[in-house]
Amino acid sequence: MAKINERLSDIPGVAPGFGYAHAVTTSNGLAFVSGQIAVDADGNLVGANDLAAQTRQALTNLQNVLHALGADWTDLVKLTWFVTDTSGLQDLRDVRDEFLRPALGDQPNPASSLVQVAGLFRPEFLVEVEAVVAVGESGR
């Protein structure tokens, strides 16, 4: 049975999560990253009505969480995407690849799920992404 090692809530460059950790590491070498959205370090929306810009900011936040975990894009096990409209899916994929292709090269992307939702926490949010990350047996 895996035990929780650490709950990370203060991540440089990421707005604080109110009432939750941005990531939780476990003794089995996995970290679970909370959904990242399109807000800057001050909590301001980035990319109103622009799925590509919001995806880029959400992935920038995820990248900051990865770095705080001592991980990078090659350590991603799974991404789960939540979008309010799938008509811009290619924009999301293009931005995702801006982050992943330099790290993964020709390797396949991590496991992934995409869920279309009626809405996110605030109506101006178009995308949210959460992750499972391999961080080693120590949990970080």
TrEMBL record:
Record bears the keyword Transmembrane helix: no
Secretion signal span: none
InterPro entries documented for this protein: RutC-like_sf (IPR035959), YjgF/YER057c/UK114 (IPR006175)
Molecular function in Gene Ontology: hydrolase activity
Statement: the UniProt record of this protein carries the keyword Hydrolase: yes
Keywords: Hydrolase
Pfam families: Ribonuc_L-PSP
CDD domains referenced in this protein's UniProt entry, alphabetically: YjgF_YER057c_UK114_family
Coiled coil: none
EC number, as in UniProt: 3.5.-.-
Enzymatic class: hydrolase
Domain of life: Bacteria
Family: Belongs to the RutC family.
Name of the protein: RidA family protein
